[in-house]
Design brief:
Strand order of the largest sheet of chain B: 2-1-5-3-4
Largest sheet of chain A: 2 strands, antiparallel
Radius of gyration of chain A: 22 Å
Order of helices and strands of chain A: HEEHHHHEEHHHH
Number of helices of chain A: 9
Number of domains of chain A: 1
CATH superfamily of the largest domain in chain B: Alpha-helical ferredoxin
Distance between the termini of chain B: 71 Å
Helix content of chain B: 25-40%
Order of helices and strands of chain B: EEHEEEEEHHHHHHHHH
Number of strands of chain B: 7
Structural class of chain B: alpha+beta
Strand order of the largest sheet of chain A: 1-2
Largest interface: A-B, 54 and 59 residues
CATH topology of the largest domain in chain B: Fumarate Reductase Iron-sulfur Protein, Chain B, domain 2
Oligomer: heterodimer
Number of strands of chain A: 4
CATH architecture of the largest domain in chain B: Orthogonal Bundle
Chain lengths: 267, 248
């Protein structure tokens, strides 16, 4: 039988017969992620206005070293290099940042939006050479599950911050009293969205049960796999919602701390 | 009755480069692109080559690119397409062209032959039968919906733009490998092959394959990423490897 060799018909960058607005989604991702990265970088280097009363911005949580009452180990450590600017956020942000950077959803999204590999489905690419995630540096994306472990630990710490955000100091006596403010709700919603994103992560889904061929043999694995799969069905949605909720929580705490917004007490 | 213009790819006799040719034909309610192509074939271009069979989205024969998107012609209803401008119908770009809208997809069959086959464990019962739990088989059942239309292979940029046919098996065969690798009865290990021969690492998860699948198989989320995670277990995760060594 005659074998016809397969050779790809290369198209130029952006060349396609598609008539729809194929560029809109990658452009939206590019703008959304750029806005977040820009804001997060700016906020991380501020080193101030990251706490207000019982609230702590999630960009700075947990505050390992710092000047706020939320700090775990006291003020800026003496070993911190003098040439480097200090901000409590710089100590912890690499972990959630790495989790998102290596997330399967974001990978697919930013390969399209930032690297045009491809710009969109069935649209010509700017480069002919291709290594994918088969070799360095992108083979390092396989570290994702280690960032997941850190992200799960962060969920516990952020949940503890929500608990602490329910205890307000009485201005008269200085004693802490239970209460709920708008900020408490903002931090709570943020943790719920982050949990929905993290627990529905593809690596989580694999680790809790997907790795097994006969998942029916473990009822716990089966239940966890079903829950994680349900969240995974909306992974993209939770990825974006949690991204904006983290940013909004920081904006909220920052503006309250600056006196621009007033935190309303519900209880 | 109204009219619509179809801009159809016609190849030169003898396998030349070819060009688009416009055909205007009458259309009626309920028609799909394949109906229009058949009408053009019957009335204006009897030498127009087009592969089709079931006209029900189940045989996977009439794969083409309609207005630049890989789709089945029989499942593309004209009332879902803007007919104010010519509708472009061209062959799948990832495979060699035979004539007009017909491509040679035999590379897929050759690729499939190179993959490890199903290797079940010994039968569970003396009568040679096996016992499986429904939820274990549900997961791989999704992959059995594949109709081998090869639209996912067509849209995959690793094949389409980077010509990695010799190194990369493409989404269709990751689905096939996942159906076997995750099967509760299967005993073979395909992970080394998936990493080194099939180069699953080339997939950068853009989900184009999932988008075009007419059977709505979650190719990326349920087949490729779980296989990538299993490859990580076996080759990239030192903790998993250590635990495997300890547990034997």
């Amino acid at each position: 039988m005659q074998v016809i060799p397969v050779t790809a018909v290369h198209r130029g960058f952006g060349q396609t017969a598609r008539r729809d607005t194929w560029w809109a989604a990658p452009l939206g991702v590019f703008l959304g992620l750029s806005a977040f990265i820009g804001y997060a970088t700016w906020a991380a280097f501020q080193g101030e206005h990251y706490h207000f009363g019982p609230y702590l911005s999630p960009f700075y949580a947990p505050e390992l070293w710092g000047d706020s009452p939320h700090s775990w180990f006291g003020p800026k450590p003496g070993w911190w290099p003098g040439l480097l600017p200090f901000s409590p956020a710089l100590l912890i942000l690499p972990f959630p940042g790495g989790f998102r950077f290596t997330c399967y959803y974001y990978r697919g999204a930013y390969y399209k939006s930032f690297w045009a590999d491809p710009p969109s489905c069935a649209v010509g690419e700017p480069r002919q050479g291709y290594l994918g995630e088969n070799s360095f540096p992108l083979i390092m994306q396989n570290i994702h599950r280690y960032f997941l472990y850190a992200a799960v630990a962060f969920l516990f710490m952020l949940s503890y911050d929500v608990w602490k955000a329910m205890w307000f100091a009485d201005p008269a006596t200085g004693q802490e009293r239970f209460g709920i403010g708008v900020g408490t709700i903002v931090l709570l919603v943020n943790v719920v969205l982050l949990s929905s994103y993290t627990l529905g992560c593809h690596s989580m889904r694999h680790l809790v049960g997907g790795r097994k061929d006969e998942i029916s043999k473990s009822a716990i694995s089966d239940a966890c796999y079903s829950c994680s799969s349900s969240l995974n069905n909306r992974h993209q949605l939770f990825a974006w919602c949690s991204l904006f909720s983290v940013m909004f929580a920081d904006v909220y705490v920052r503006l309250c701390s600056m006196g621009i917004w007033t935190d309303l007490r519900i209880i | 009755m109204s009219q619509a213009t179809f801009r159809i790819w016609r190849s030169e006799p003898g396998g030349g480069a070819g060009a688009f040719k416009n055909y205007t034909t009458e259309i009626s309610e309920g028609m799909v692109v394949l109906d229009a192509v058949h009408k053009i074939q019957a009335e204006q271009a009897p030498d127009l080559a087009c592969r089709w069979n079931c006209k029900a989205g189940k045989c996977g024969s009439c794969s083409a690119e309609i207005n630049g998107k890989p789709r089945l012609m029989c499942m593309s209803r004209l009332n879902s397409i803007n007919l104010d401008e010519p509708v472009t119908v061209e062959p799948m770009r990832t495979f060699p062209l035979i004539k007009d809208l017909v491509t040679d997809v035999s590379w897929n069959f050759r690729t499939k032959k190179g993959l490890k086959k199903f290797k079940p464990r010994k039968p569970d019962a003396p009568d040679g039968t096996w016992r499986m739990a429904q939820q274990d088989i549900d997961r791989v059942q999704e992959f059995r919906k594949c109709i081998e239309c090869f639209l996912c292979q067509d849209v995959c940029h690793v094949l389409r733009d980077h010509d990695k046919h010799e190194e990369f098996i493409g989404p269709r065969f990751f689905v096939y490998a996942a159906a076997l690798e995750m099967h509760p009865l299967d005993t073979d290990d395909r992970l080394a092959d998936l990493k080194d021969k099939s180069n699953i690492g080339y997939c950068n998860i853009t989900k184009c394959c999932t988008t075009v699948c007419p059977e709505h198989i979650h190719i990326t989320d349920n087949a490729i990423i779980p296989l990538k995670e299993r490859v990580v277990d076996s080759f990239y995760d030192p903790v998993s490897r250590l635990l495997r060594m300890i547990s034997g």
